[in-house]
Design a protein that fits this description.
44% strand; 115 residues; 0% helix; Tumour Suppressor Smad4; mainly beta
Length: 115
């Protein structure tokens, strides 16, 4: 499925509205001046307020991206793609790797589409 390439400064957040930051693993390939995110990049979440019943905090700390590009490789790794801004094809995860819901991407570059 084609989608827009994700990049380092794409604005995204966890299901509970905490900001998420894409930490790129390659500095060479740029889109609109920002490094393209590959499937080896980490997406870190900071400040998630989610807790489960009982006082046990279960904040989102990472996002596992589930939609790699099928044809576009960046330095040998598939690029991360998103069909359109909005709910992303990924899973926010707690420190214990418990799925918390999909991330929300509100701003991404609109020019480069990958398959």
């Amino acid at each position: 499925m084609p989608g827009l390439l994700l990049h380092a400064n794409a604005v995204c957040q966890c299901t509970h509205a905490a900001p998420a930051t894409i930490v790129p693993t390659q500095p060479r390939v740029l889109v609109m001046g920002q490094p393209v995110a590959t499937m080896t990049a980490q997406i870190m979440v900071a400040g998630c307020p989610f807790t489960i019943p009982g006082p046990k905090p279960q904040p989102c700390v990472t996002v596992k991206w589930l939609m790699p590009s099928a044809r576009v490789l960046v330095m040998g790794q598939p690029a991360m793609v998103i069909p359109a801004p909005g709910v992303g094809p990924g899973l926010c995860q707690s420190p214990e790797q418990i799925p918390q819901g999909p991330p929300i991407v509100s701003t991404v570059q609109p020019r480069v589409i990958a398959l």
